[in-house]
Specification:
By secondary structure, the chain is mostly helical. Helices cover 81% and strands 0% of the residues. The protein has helices at residues 2-19, 22-48, 54-77, 86-107, 117-140, 146-151, 153-169, 172-178. 30% of the residues are buried.
């Protein structure tokens, strides 16, 4: 249920960011926080109640990918942030490669490939950056803080590049483990 809730948040997040008003950007920031917290609670409760399922192992990372890729696509489209699309492409490559590996292992009857620690850290960093960027847009929509937001564009891009590189690198343990 928590996994599917995150999936439902995706179009609402996109619509709120595209709306661009201060209140909608603030609400979009809140949706990112809710999505990330629900991901943490989902995993915690599954382990606590020993309710780890094939559904959870398969669909939790897929929903996270949908949320993260959609959010970054909307944020890259936002001209006020001036984000390079290349880190998003790196993230897409990583997500498709790891997802493809999971499918190959399932079809080959090798079993499910659970999340690695680097993969979990990657997700936390991605959600955090999406939250910060959405909050930056919210603050940037307020007249008094527009100049501050514009001056930090280089910082947002550096952070986005670092997340892109880390995301790509976090895929290697999956291939090493499956080898």
């Amino acid at each position: 249920l928590l996994t599917l809730t995150r999936l439902v948040l995706v179009p609402f997040f996109a619509l709120l960011v595209l709306d661009g008003r201060t209140w909608s950007l603030g609400l979009a920031s809140l949706l990112v926080a809710v999505g990330f917290i629900s991901d943490l609670v989902d995993g915690y409760l599954a382990r606590l109640w020993k309710q780890i399922s094939d559904f959870g192992i398969c669909f939790d990372p897929i929903v996270d990918k949908i949320f993260v890729l959609s959010a970054f696509a909307v944020l890259v489209n936002e001209s006020r942030l001036a984000l390079s699309p290349l880190p998003l492409i790196m993230i897409i490559i990583r997500e498709m490669m790891v997802s493809g590996l999971r499918v190959i292992l399932l079809v080959g009857k090798s079993g499910l490939l659970p999340a690695e620690k680097f993969g979990k850290l990657k997700s936390a960093l991605q959600f955090s950056l999406i939250f910060v960027l959405t909050l930056v847009l919210c603050l940037g929509s307020i007249q008094a803080t527009q100049m501050i937001v514009q001056r930090w564009t280089l910082i947002w891009n550096i952070l986005f590049w670092l997340i892109g590189i880390f995301s790509l690198a976090s895929g290697f343990p999956y291939f090493r483990q499956s080898w």
